[in-house]
Amino acid sequence: MNGDRTGEALAPLAAAFRTGERDPTAYANTLRDRIEARDPEIHAWVDGAISRAWLTAETEALLERHPRSDSESDAGDGADRPPLFGVPVGVKDIFHVDGLPTRAGSDLPPEVLAGQEATAVRRLRAAGATVAGKTHTTEFAYFSPPPTRNPHDLDHTPGGSSSGSAAAVASGTAPLALGTQTVGSIVRPAAFCGVVGFKPTRGRLPTDGVIPLSRSVDHVGTFTRDVAGAALAASVLLDGWDEQRAGERTEPPTLGVPTGPYLDQPSEVGREAFERALDSLANAGYELVRVEAFPDIDDVNDRHDTLVAAEAALAHGEWYGRYGDRYADATRELIEDGLSTPVSALVRGRRGRDALRDSLAETADDHGIDAWIAPAAPGPAPEGIDDTGDPAMNLPWTHAGLPTIGLPAGDVDGLPVGVQVAAEFDADERLLAWADEIAGAVRDAV
Protein backbone atom coordinates (compact mmCIF):
# COMPACT_ATOMS: atom_id res chain seq x y z
CA MET A 1 0.00 0.00 0.00
CA ASN A 2 1.33 3.46 -0.91
CA GLY A 3 -0.87 5.95 0.92
CA ASP A 4 -3.64 7.24 -1.31
CA ARG A 5 -3.53 9.37 -4.42
CA THR A 6 -7.32 9.74 -4.71
CA GLY A 7 -7.62 11.89 -1.58
CA GLU A 8 -8.33 15.51 -2.30
CA ALA A 9 -6.69 18.74 -1.20
CA LEU A 10 -8.85 20.78 1.14
CA ALA A 11 -8.81 24.25 -0.44
CA PRO A 12 -10.04 23.36 -3.96
CA LEU A 13 -12.56 20.91 -2.52
CA ALA A 14 -14.02 23.57 -0.23
CA ALA A 15 -14.12 26.08 -3.09
CA ALA A 16 -16.01 23.61 -5.27
CA PHE A 17 -18.57 23.00 -2.51
CA ARG A 18 -19.11 26.74 -2.01
CA THR A 19 -19.72 27.44 -5.68
CA GLY A 20 -21.89 24.40 -6.26
CA GLU A 21 -19.47 22.69 -8.65
CA ARG A 22 -19.41 19.74 -6.23
CA ASP A 23 -22.25 18.30 -4.15
CA PRO A 24 -21.44 17.80 -0.44
CA THR A 25 -23.95 14.98 -0.11
CA ALA A 26 -22.47 13.04 -3.02
CA TYR A 27 -18.98 13.60 -1.63
CA ALA A 28 -20.05 12.41 1.83
CA ASN A 29 -21.34 9.21 0.28
CA THR A 30 -18.11 8.77 -1.67
CA LEU A 31 -16.11 9.26 1.50
CA ARG A 32 -18.27 6.72 3.30
CA ASP A 33 -17.59 4.21 0.55
CA ARG A 34 -13.84 4.85 0.74
CA ILE A 35 -13.83 4.30 4.48
CA GLU A 36 -15.83 1.10 4.21
CA ALA A 37 -13.40 -0.17 1.57
CA ARG A 38 -10.10 0.90 3.16
CA ASP A 39 -10.53 1.32 6.86
CA PRO A 40 -10.89 -2.38 7.78
CA GLU A 41 -7.12 -2.57 7.14
CA ILE A 42 -6.05 0.88 8.33
CA HIS A 43 -8.32 1.41 11.37
CA ALA A 44 -8.14 5.20 11.30
CA TRP A 45 -11.77 5.61 12.37
CA VAL A 46 -13.34 4.69 15.70
CA ASP A 47 -15.77 1.78 15.24
CA GLY A 48 -14.21 1.00 11.89
CA ALA A 49 -16.24 3.23 9.59
CA ILE A 50 -18.03 6.50 9.25
CA SER A 51 -21.74 6.35 10.14
CA ARG A 52 -23.82 6.94 6.99
CA ALA A 53 -26.78 8.17 9.00
CA TRP A 54 -24.58 10.51 11.07
CA LEU A 55 -22.84 12.20 8.17
CA THR A 56 -25.98 12.30 6.04
CA ALA A 57 -27.85 14.05 8.84
CA GLU A 58 -24.97 16.50 9.38
CA THR A 59 -24.82 17.32 5.67
CA GLU A 60 -28.58 17.71 5.31
CA ALA A 61 -28.70 20.04 8.30
CA LEU A 62 -25.91 22.12 6.77
CA LEU A 63 -27.73 22.42 3.44
CA GLU A 64 -30.89 23.51 5.25
CA ARG A 65 -28.94 26.31 6.94
CA HIS A 66 -27.31 27.40 3.68
CA PRO A 67 -29.73 26.65 0.84
CA ARG A 68 -28.97 27.65 -2.70
CA SER A 69 -31.50 30.17 -3.97
CA ASP A 70 -33.53 29.45 -7.12
CA SER A 71 -31.91 32.41 -8.86
CA GLU A 72 -28.41 31.25 -8.09
CA SER A 73 -26.44 29.59 -10.86
CA ASP A 74 -25.13 26.07 -10.45
CA ALA A 75 -21.63 27.50 -10.23
CA GLY A 76 -21.80 30.79 -8.43
CA ASP A 77 -18.98 32.49 -6.58
CA GLY A 78 -19.88 30.88 -3.24
CA ALA A 79 -19.78 34.21 -1.42
CA ASP A 80 -22.93 33.36 0.53
CA ARG A 81 -21.47 30.14 1.92
CA PRO A 82 -18.89 29.78 4.71
CA PRO A 83 -15.27 28.88 3.90
CA LEU A 84 -15.42 25.18 4.81
CA PHE A 85 -18.95 24.59 3.56
CA GLY A 86 -19.61 20.85 3.27
CA VAL A 87 -16.11 19.71 4.25
CA PRO A 88 -16.15 16.50 6.35
CA VAL A 89 -13.64 16.55 9.23
CA GLY A 90 -12.15 13.69 11.20
CA VAL A 91 -11.95 14.47 14.91
CA LYS A 92 -9.43 12.87 17.26
CA ASP A 93 -11.33 11.01 19.94
CA ILE A 94 -10.25 13.22 22.82
CA PHE A 95 -12.35 16.12 21.46
CA HIS A 96 -15.91 16.36 22.68
CA VAL A 97 -18.42 16.44 19.81
CA ASP A 98 -22.13 16.94 20.45
CA GLY A 99 -23.90 13.72 19.54
CA LEU A 100 -20.84 11.45 19.64
CA PRO A 101 -19.30 9.70 22.66
CA THR A 102 -15.72 10.45 23.71
CA ARG A 103 -13.70 7.37 24.58
CA ALA A 104 -10.14 8.76 24.32
CA GLY A 105 -8.79 5.36 23.36
CA SER A 106 -9.50 4.17 26.89
CA ASP A 107 -11.59 1.64 28.79
CA LEU A 108 -13.20 4.30 30.98
CA PRO A 109 -16.99 4.70 30.68
CA PRO A 110 -17.79 7.31 27.97
CA GLU A 111 -20.33 8.98 30.23
CA VAL A 112 -17.55 9.73 32.74
CA LEU A 113 -15.50 11.46 30.05
CA ALA A 114 -18.38 13.46 28.55
CA GLY A 115 -18.13 17.23 28.26
CA GLN A 116 -19.11 20.28 26.24
CA GLU A 117 -18.24 20.37 22.55
CA ALA A 118 -14.70 21.56 21.88
CA THR A 119 -14.17 25.13 20.68
CA ALA A 120 -12.18 23.83 17.71
CA VAL A 121 -15.12 21.67 16.63
CA ARG A 122 -17.58 24.53 17.08
CA ARG A 123 -15.40 26.83 14.97
CA LEU A 124 -15.17 24.29 12.18
CA ARG A 125 -18.92 23.78 12.22
CA ALA A 126 -19.49 27.54 12.19
CA ALA A 127 -17.25 27.65 9.11
CA GLY A 128 -19.52 25.12 7.39
CA ALA A 129 -17.64 21.89 8.08
CA THR A 130 -19.38 18.66 9.08
CA VAL A 131 -18.02 16.13 11.55
CA ALA A 132 -17.31 12.90 9.70
CA GLY A 133 -16.66 10.90 12.86
CA LYS A 134 -14.06 10.18 15.52
CA THR A 135 -10.52 9.06 14.71
CA HIS A 136 -8.41 6.72 16.81
CA THR A 137 -5.99 8.04 19.41
CA THR A 138 -3.51 6.50 21.78
CA GLU A 139 -5.02 6.21 25.25
CA PHE A 140 -5.58 9.76 26.54
CA ALA A 141 -3.15 11.02 23.86
CA TYR A 142 -0.16 9.35 25.51
CA PHE A 143 1.75 6.26 24.33
CA SER A 144 -0.56 3.21 24.55
CA PRO A 145 -1.27 2.69 20.84
CA PRO A 146 -4.58 2.20 19.01
CA PRO A 147 -5.07 -0.39 16.23
CA THR A 148 -4.31 2.18 13.48
CA ARG A 149 -1.78 1.25 10.78
CA ASN A 150 0.30 3.32 8.40
CA PRO A 151 -1.47 3.64 5.01
CA HIS A 152 1.91 3.48 3.24
CA ASP A 153 2.81 0.13 4.82
CA LEU A 154 0.39 -1.68 7.09
CA ASP A 155 3.25 -3.29 8.98
CA HIS A 156 4.40 0.12 10.27
CA THR A 157 3.04 2.59 12.81
CA PRO A 158 1.29 5.76 11.66
CA GLY A 159 2.74 7.51 14.71
CA GLY A 160 0.79 8.94 17.59
CA SER A 161 -0.99 10.10 19.51
CA SER A 162 -3.09 11.52 16.64
CA SER A 163 -2.77 8.19 14.84
CA GLY A 164 -6.20 8.01 13.25
CA SER A 165 -6.30 11.63 12.11
CA ALA A 166 -2.98 11.35 10.26
CA ALA A 167 -3.93 8.00 8.73
CA ALA A 168 -7.37 9.25 7.68
CA VAL A 169 -5.93 12.15 5.70
CA ALA A 170 -3.14 9.98 4.26
CA SER A 171 -5.60 7.28 3.18
CA GLY A 172 -7.89 9.76 1.44
CA THR A 173 -10.78 9.15 3.83
CA ALA A 174 -10.79 12.73 5.19
CA PRO A 175 -9.63 16.01 3.63
CA LEU A 176 -9.11 17.57 7.09
CA ALA A 177 -8.64 16.16 10.57
CA LEU A 178 -8.11 17.56 14.05
CA GLY A 179 -5.31 16.38 16.30
CA THR A 180 -3.39 17.43 19.38
CA GLN A 181 0.28 17.70 20.25
CA THR A 182 1.75 17.60 23.74
CA VAL A 183 5.17 16.33 22.65
CA GLY A 184 5.10 15.31 18.99
CA SER A 185 1.62 14.00 18.30
CA ILE A 186 0.84 16.06 15.18
CA VAL A 187 4.15 16.62 13.44
CA ARG A 188 5.51 13.09 13.93
CA PRO A 189 2.48 11.16 12.59
CA ALA A 190 2.21 13.66 9.75
CA ALA A 191 5.80 12.80 8.81
CA PHE A 192 5.23 9.05 9.10
CA CYS A 193 2.07 9.26 6.97
CA GLY A 194 3.34 11.76 4.38
CA VAL A 195 0.86 14.58 5.06
CA VAL A 196 1.01 18.13 6.43
CA GLY A 197 0.64 18.59 10.18
CA PHE A 198 0.26 22.08 11.64
CA LYS A 199 0.66 22.94 15.34
CA PRO A 200 -0.16 26.60 16.04
CA THR A 201 1.45 28.89 18.59
CA ARG A 202 0.49 27.86 22.11
CA GLY A 203 -2.71 29.64 23.05
CA ARG A 204 -3.94 30.65 19.59
CA LEU A 205 -6.34 27.73 19.36
CA PRO A 206 -8.24 27.04 22.60
CA THR A 207 -8.02 23.53 24.05
CA ASP A 208 -11.30 23.63 25.97
CA GLY A 209 -13.54 20.68 25.24
CA VAL A 210 -10.46 18.49 24.75
CA ILE A 211 -9.51 15.90 27.37
CA PRO A 212 -6.21 17.24 28.71
CA LEU A 213 -2.92 15.48 29.10
CA SER A 214 -0.74 18.43 30.10
CA ARG A 215 -2.68 21.69 30.10
CA SER A 216 0.28 24.06 29.77
CA VAL A 217 1.75 22.33 26.71
CA ASP A 218 -1.27 20.71 25.01
CA HIS A 219 -1.84 22.15 21.52
CA VAL A 220 -4.71 21.64 19.06
CA GLY A 221 -3.76 21.42 15.38
CA THR A 222 -4.66 19.97 11.99
CA PHE A 223 -3.80 17.43 9.32
CA THR A 224 -4.25 18.21 5.61
CA ARG A 225 -2.79 17.03 2.34
CA ASP A 226 -1.05 20.34 1.60
CA VAL A 227 -0.07 23.68 3.09
CA ALA A 228 -2.89 25.61 1.40
CA GLY A 229 -5.35 23.39 3.23
CA ALA A 230 -3.57 23.97 6.54
CA ALA A 231 -3.75 27.73 5.98
CA LEU A 232 -7.46 27.59 5.13
CA ALA A 233 -8.22 25.62 8.30
CA ALA A 234 -6.06 27.94 10.39
CA SER A 235 -7.94 30.97 9.09
CA VAL A 236 -11.15 29.77 10.76
CA LEU A 237 -9.62 28.11 13.81
CA LEU A 238 -6.99 30.49 15.20
CA ASP A 239 -7.67 33.41 17.49
CA GLY A 240 -6.77 36.73 15.91
CA TRP A 241 -6.13 35.38 12.41
CA ASP A 242 -4.79 38.23 10.30
CA GLU A 243 -5.64 37.76 6.64
CA GLN A 244 -3.40 40.64 5.62
CA ARG A 245 -0.37 39.09 7.32
CA ALA A 246 -1.25 35.73 5.81
CA GLY A 247 -1.36 37.19 2.31
CA GLU A 248 1.81 39.28 2.47
CA ARG A 249 4.47 38.38 -0.07
CA THR A 250 7.80 38.16 1.68
CA GLU A 251 11.30 37.16 0.73
CA PRO A 252 12.18 33.50 1.28
CA PRO A 253 13.12 33.05 4.94
CA THR A 254 16.61 32.42 6.18
CA LEU A 255 16.39 29.00 7.78
CA GLY A 256 18.31 28.05 10.90
CA VAL A 257 19.58 24.48 11.22
CA PRO A 258 19.94 23.64 14.96
CA THR A 259 23.23 21.77 15.19
CA GLY A 260 24.62 20.11 18.31
CA PRO A 261 23.27 17.29 20.48
CA TYR A 262 19.70 17.85 19.28
CA LEU A 263 20.67 16.70 15.78
CA ASP A 264 22.46 13.67 17.22
CA GLN A 265 19.04 12.15 18.03
CA PRO A 266 17.85 11.04 14.56
CA SER A 267 18.82 7.70 13.07
CA GLU A 268 21.47 7.55 10.37
CA VAL A 269 18.85 7.26 7.61
CA GLY A 270 16.92 10.08 9.23
CA ARG A 271 19.94 12.39 9.19
CA GLU A 272 20.69 11.47 5.58
CA ALA A 273 17.12 12.26 4.56
CA PHE A 274 17.29 15.59 6.37
CA GLU A 275 20.52 16.52 4.62
CA ARG A 276 18.92 15.71 1.27
CA ALA A 277 16.08 18.07 2.15
CA LEU A 278 18.58 20.78 3.07
CA ASP A 279 20.38 20.26 -0.24
CA SER A 280 17.07 20.71 -2.06
CA LEU A 281 16.44 23.95 -0.20
CA ALA A 282 19.94 25.24 -0.94
CA ASN A 283 19.45 24.40 -4.62
CA ALA A 284 16.18 26.34 -4.53
CA GLY A 285 18.01 29.43 -3.28
CA TYR A 286 17.30 29.27 0.45
CA GLU A 287 19.95 30.55 2.83
CA LEU A 288 20.71 27.99 5.54
CA VAL A 289 22.47 28.99 8.74
CA ARG A 290 23.85 26.18 10.85
CA VAL A 291 24.05 27.23 14.47
CA GLU A 292 24.18 25.34 17.72
CA ALA A 293 20.85 25.25 19.54
CA PHE A 294 19.57 23.20 22.46
CA PRO A 295 23.02 22.47 23.93
CA ASP A 296 21.07 21.32 27.01
CA ILE A 297 18.63 19.14 25.06
CA ASP A 298 18.76 16.36 27.67
CA ASP A 299 17.67 18.84 30.34
CA VAL A 300 14.94 20.23 28.08
CA ASN A 301 13.66 16.71 27.44
CA ASP A 302 13.69 15.82 31.13
CA ARG A 303 11.99 19.08 32.08
CA HIS A 304 9.23 18.56 29.52
CA ASP A 305 8.66 14.94 30.49
CA THR A 306 8.42 15.88 34.16
CA LEU A 307 5.96 18.68 33.36
CA VAL A 308 3.74 16.36 31.32
CA ALA A 309 3.72 13.72 34.05
CA ALA A 310 2.88 16.22 36.80
CA GLU A 311 0.09 17.86 34.81
CA ALA A 312 -1.31 14.48 33.69
CA ALA A 313 -1.61 13.51 37.35
CA LEU A 314 -3.48 16.76 38.02
CA ALA A 315 -5.80 16.35 35.03
CA HIS A 316 -6.59 12.68 35.68
CA GLY A 317 -6.55 12.64 39.46
CA GLU A 318 -10.28 12.04 39.98
CA TRP A 319 -10.68 9.55 37.14
CA TYR A 320 -7.52 7.70 38.12
CA GLY A 321 -8.68 7.43 41.71
CA ARG A 322 -11.89 5.71 40.57
CA TYR A 323 -10.75 3.80 37.49
CA GLY A 324 -7.00 3.35 37.89
CA ASP A 325 -7.21 -0.35 37.07
CA ARG A 326 -8.67 0.50 33.64
CA TYR A 327 -5.70 2.62 32.55
CA ALA A 328 -3.03 1.12 30.30
CA ASP A 329 0.34 0.42 31.85
CA ALA A 330 2.12 3.29 30.07
CA THR A 331 -0.46 5.87 31.14
CA ARG A 332 -0.62 4.50 34.67
CA GLU A 333 3.16 4.81 34.96
CA LEU A 334 3.00 8.42 33.71
CA ILE A 335 0.37 9.38 36.26
CA GLU A 336 2.16 7.62 39.12
CA ASP A 337 5.34 9.49 38.21
CA GLY A 338 3.37 12.71 38.18
CA LEU A 339 1.85 12.05 41.58
CA SER A 340 5.34 11.89 43.08
CA THR A 341 6.64 15.01 41.28
CA PRO A 342 7.44 17.88 43.66
CA VAL A 343 5.75 21.22 43.05
CA SER A 344 9.16 22.80 42.49
CA ALA A 345 9.73 20.57 39.44
CA LEU A 346 6.32 21.51 38.06
CA VAL A 347 7.10 25.22 38.46
CA ARG A 348 10.52 24.72 36.88
CA GLY A 349 8.94 23.00 33.88
CA ARG A 350 6.44 25.78 33.31
CA ARG A 351 9.06 28.50 33.64
CA GLY A 352 11.33 26.59 31.28
CA ARG A 353 8.87 26.98 28.40
CA ASP A 354 9.27 30.73 28.27
CA ALA A 355 13.02 30.57 28.92
CA LEU A 356 13.50 28.24 25.96
CA ARG A 357 11.34 30.42 23.73
CA ASP A 358 13.37 33.51 24.68
CA SER A 359 16.66 31.67 24.09
CA LEU A 360 15.60 30.56 20.61
CA ALA A 361 14.45 34.07 19.74
CA GLU A 362 17.76 35.55 20.88
CA THR A 363 19.77 33.01 18.87
CA ALA A 364 17.63 33.65 15.80
CA ASP A 365 18.09 37.42 16.13
CA ASP A 366 21.85 37.07 16.54
CA HIS A 367 22.19 35.00 13.37
CA GLY A 368 19.54 36.59 11.13
CA ILE A 369 17.32 33.49 11.23
CA ASP A 370 13.65 33.82 10.25
CA ALA A 371 12.58 30.25 10.97
CA TRP A 372 14.09 26.96 12.11
CA ILE A 373 14.15 23.72 10.13
CA ALA A 374 14.72 20.26 11.58
CA PRO A 375 13.81 16.62 10.99
CA ALA A 376 10.15 15.97 11.78
CA ALA A 377 11.01 12.59 13.28
CA PRO A 378 14.15 10.54 13.94
CA GLY A 379 13.52 8.66 10.69
CA PRO A 380 10.73 6.89 8.82
CA ALA A 381 7.95 5.09 10.70
CA PRO A 382 9.24 2.15 12.76
CA GLU A 383 8.00 -1.34 11.97
CA GLY A 384 5.14 -2.65 14.09
CA ILE A 385 2.17 -0.91 15.70
CA ASP A 386 3.02 -1.53 19.36
CA ASP A 387 5.11 1.66 19.48
CA THR A 388 4.19 5.01 17.92
CA GLY A 389 7.80 6.22 17.56
CA ASP A 390 10.08 8.70 19.29
CA PRO A 391 8.86 12.34 19.60
CA ALA A 392 12.32 13.69 20.54
CA MET A 393 12.66 15.87 17.43
CA ASN A 394 9.36 17.65 18.16
CA LEU A 395 9.70 18.08 21.90
CA PRO A 396 11.67 21.36 22.18
CA TRP A 397 9.46 23.21 19.69
CA THR A 398 6.37 22.07 21.58
CA HIS A 399 7.96 23.00 24.92
CA ALA A 400 8.64 26.51 23.61
CA GLY A 401 5.10 26.76 22.20
CA LEU A 402 6.31 27.89 18.76
CA PRO A 403 4.15 27.49 15.65
CA THR A 404 5.43 24.44 13.79
CA ILE A 405 4.49 22.76 10.55
CA GLY A 406 5.50 19.31 9.37
CA LEU A 407 6.07 18.90 5.63
CA PRO A 408 6.60 15.75 3.54
CA ALA A 409 10.18 15.50 2.29
CA GLY A 410 10.55 12.39 0.17
CA ASP A 411 10.76 8.83 1.39
CA VAL A 412 13.11 6.10 2.54
CA ASP A 413 12.36 2.74 0.93
CA GLY A 414 8.76 3.77 0.30
CA LEU A 415 8.09 5.16 3.78
CA PRO A 416 7.59 8.93 4.03
CA VAL A 417 9.97 11.23 5.88
CA GLY A 418 9.45 14.88 6.70
CA VAL A 419 10.89 18.12 7.94
CA GLN A 420 9.41 20.56 10.43
CA VAL A 421 9.65 24.32 10.24
CA ALA A 422 9.18 26.47 13.37
CA ALA A 423 8.73 30.24 13.37
CA GLU A 424 8.80 32.78 16.16
CA PHE A 425 6.01 32.89 18.71
CA ASP A 426 2.70 34.16 17.24
CA ALA A 427 4.02 34.18 13.66
CA ASP A 428 1.59 31.51 12.44
CA GLU A 429 0.44 33.48 9.38
CA ARG A 430 4.01 34.11 8.27
CA LEU A 431 5.00 30.48 8.82
CA LEU A 432 2.14 29.19 6.69
CA ALA A 433 2.93 31.73 3.96
CA TRP A 434 6.54 30.53 3.87
CA ALA A 435 5.71 26.86 4.18
CA ASP A 436 4.04 26.45 0.80
CA GLU A 437 7.22 27.15 -1.17
CA ILE A 438 9.39 25.29 1.34
CA ALA A 439 7.11 22.27 0.89
CA GLY A 440 7.56 22.45 -2.86
CA ALA A 441 11.34 22.53 -2.51
CA VAL A 442 11.59 19.48 -0.22
CA ARG A 443 8.65 17.39 -1.43
CA ASP A 444 10.69 15.09 -3.62
CA ALA A 445 14.06 15.41 -1.92
CA VAL A 446 16.38 12.67 -3.22
Tags for this model:
Amidase_dom, 15 helices, 10 strands, globular, Amidase signature (AS) enzymes, 446 residues, alpha/beta, 13% strand
Summarize the structure.
Helices cover 42% and strands 13% of the residues. The chain is α/β, with parallel strands linked by helices and 446 residues long.
Provide a descriptive summary of the structure in words.
With 446 residues, this protein is an alpha/beta fold. The chain has a single domain (1-446), classed as Amidase signature (AS) enzymes, CATH 3.90.1300.10. Helices cover 42% and strands 13% of the residues. It has 15 helices and ten strands. The chain has helices at 10-19, 24-42, 52-65, 110-113, 119-126, 163-170, 187-193, 227-237, 243-247, 268-283, 297-323, 329-339, 343-367, 395-400, 428-442; strands at residues 88-92, 130-135, 176-181, 196-199, 219-224, 255-259, 288-292, 371-375, 404-412, 415-423. The chain has a ten-stranded mixed sheet, sandwiched between helices. Helix 10 links the parallel strand 6 (255-259) and strand 7. Helix 8 packs antiparallel against helix 15 (428-442) and helix 11 (297-323) runs antiparallel to helix 13 (343-367). The longest helix is centred in the last third of the chain and has 27 residues, at 297-323. It is globular, with a radius of gyration of 21 Å. The two termini are 21 Å apart.
